[in-house]
Amino acid sequence: xxxxxxxxxxxxxxxxxxFFFVPxxxxxAYLIAVMQTxxxxxxxxxxxxMAKFWxxxxxxxxxxxxxxxxxxxxxxxxxxxxxSRFVGAVFGGPLAIEALVSFFLESTFLGIWIFGWDxxxxxxxxxxxxxVAIGTTLSALWILSANSFMQEPVGYAIxxxxxxxxxxxxxxxxxxxxxxxxxxxxxxxxTGALFVTGISAYKIVRKQQPQLFKTSxxxxxTIALAASFMTAVAxxxxxxxxxxxxxxxxxxxxxxxxxxxxxxxxxxxxxxxxQKQQNHAQIEVPYALSIxxxxxxxxxxxxxxxxxxxYEAKYGPGNYIPPVKTTFWSFRIMxxxxxxxxxxxLFGTYAVWxxxxxxxxxxxxxxxxxxxxxxxxxSAGWIMTEVGRQPWLVFGLQxxxxxxxxxxxxxxxxxxxxxxxxxxxxxxxxxxxxIIVFVKKGAVDEEHEPEDRKSSQPNTATPL
Length: 464
Description:
- The chain is mostly helical.
- The chain has helices at 3-18, 22-42, 45-78, 81-115, 122-151, 168-172, 177-205, 210-245, 247-253, 288-294, 304-315, 324-353, 361-369, 372-387, 410-441; strands spanning 156-159, 162-165, 266-273, 278-285, 392-394, 398-399.
- Helix 1 (3-18) runs parallel beside helix 15 and helix 8 crosses helix 9.
- It is globular, with a radius of gyration of 24 Å.
- It starts with a helix and ends in a 23-residue tail after the last helix.
């Protein structure tokens, strides 16, 4: 493998790994804020105990997310120096604002929240966790504004062979940003909610503080249902925007080689032959792709072969078809995980509403495994988004092969790739171990419980 391939693998692995932590930080911050709000409103100490318990898991996740995120920015200078040189004047602005404003906002108020228990007025302390949640959201906004520029460049001018920002308002008003941002935030809320419901289900099954964790489950499953449904709605809007901004990505996600007729079916399954540019053993849903693309039963969707000819005429000779199998299957994995999240959340909401949650032991065990669903959906969605943009690093402006550092050798990248993989693996093992320790310990009132009774005292919290 050459420097380009190794650099792509390294950035892909480290990015997917880092994004394990980002959605959970965003989503869990809002759930903790809701729990603490219930504590302030209802004056029930059970919600305080609950907020502190989930707060510990949030802090573990936040710490690892910060460490892994720092390495992402180093790669822009080390492995992708020609990319940084070309678009640094545009791409660097949102990243700098994210670090100097949003990250400092969330980290400052997170410190206040950690050390402010029983030292600050309740409402002031409550405001600090809401500001942490808002800070995580603003961080996502600035990061996604930079990514949206790569998907759909706006607000720039080419001067002296470099892209320079001409309008920060154009960057923030990018249409791609405003279909991508809601999709990511709703996905993050789903991640945090299913994390809470999964661990709560584990504690209910084990009959460890079942009443308190039933309350946690109720909060989590309610948010999970709303957020997972809205994630699907936002994803639908994003797919429709792709028809205008990146039709090749849309065609690749459907393994659509040739332009359809008046109506386009959605392919559920296909055996894709890239060499012959055709599919075998297809299972299709009539009209579904036209509905996905245009919100109507009829509408032609351009195929990759026709788009390849258009791109060659516009951008010059080259292969503009992305890796079709990866784009096609990552999209379907994301959709399948999303559908399962909606169905499980819907059933869980029904069980809570009918006050029959404890009777569905098999469902509770499924919910423990369901913690993985948003992680699968998030990872598959980003793989589809980034791989489907190939061969472009910045769509229409710079190809991926032109952005890699020219002076970095394959051996250097391979060494750092191995090093990151080992270190990140150790971090993952340590994080999982600590989460297991805190989950087994349970949610306890450390301020008022005797040391020998912290893990055994029942709670009296009731479901919402």
